[in-house]
Amino acid sequence: MSEDKTLFEKIAAGEIPADIVYEDDQCFAFRDIDPQAPTHVLVVPRKPIRNSASATAEDQEVLGHLLLASQKVAEAVGVKDSGYRLVMNNGDDAGEAVPHLHMHLLGGRKLNWPPG
Asked: Which end of the chain offers a freer environment for a tag, N or C, measured as fewer CB atoms within 10 Å?
């Protein structure tokens, strides 16, 4: 196991277990181990992109794919019709904890605004 892999690359490779709820050739989604809502799923590209600030024009297809895949994830976990929030953290002040771009899909309860 390479020490250079991110946590999410290790999950994608099956080196670390996760409750996978969706996967395709470009991304996968799994339940967060520290949920902040009744439904909290991470949608992660297989391609390692550090965060949204480091994405390039080459990443446009995978970034769009994440948004479309999130619809399928929301349906799979039962929040498509009731509503859900998509969040990307970028940088320390935003709470970025894993250096691999990902979206948090949150739902299962009323989500207030503004957040945090």
From this structure: C
E-strand stretches of 18-91:
20-23, 27-31, 39-45, 84-87
Residue 116 counted as domain residue = no
Please indicate, yes or no, if residue 15 is contained in any of the structural domains: yes
40 catalytic? Reply is no
Q: What is the pLDDT of residues 34-55, one digit of tens each?
A: 999 999 999 999 999 999 999 9
CATH number of the domain where residue 65 is located: 3.30.428.10
pTM recorded for the entire structure: 0.93
Q: What is the pLDDT of residues 10-34, one digit of tens each?
A: 999 999 999 999 999 999 999 999 9
